[in-house]
Amino acid sequence: MSKRVLLLIAVLAAFAEAHAQSAEVQPPQLRRIPVAGVGEGRYWQQVVITLDQDDAASDSALTVHLPPALKVLDLNGDGRVMDEVRVVYAAAGAEAPAFGISAEFTTDQVVVLSSSAAAAAGGR
Prior knowledge:
Layout: E1 16-17, E2 22-25, E3 47-50, E4 58-65, E5 100-101, E6 110-115
Antiparallel strand pairs: 1-4, 2-3, 4-6, 5-6
């Protein structure tokens, strides 16, 4: 059975590759999911990514790589995992980057967020 990961922008992980951005699992109780020996259960994961610098609009604004033991599960069986990930953005100012999940680049092991406008440093 696969693992289920929920991204809230936040978006995903103490396992995130967010180039000069910072990521932390919130709330702290969710950090208890073991990295080794995850088991066969389904898990919901919430990760808060704080932009440490301005982020330009891009088809791949943020990329999160999951560790090998975790995968985003296609719960509705439509062959896509992008609809299994949720993004919430808290602006640092008046910006509205409209972050979304990239259908082109997102897989069960890599979640890629796109944006249609710039995001400001301090956005979460």
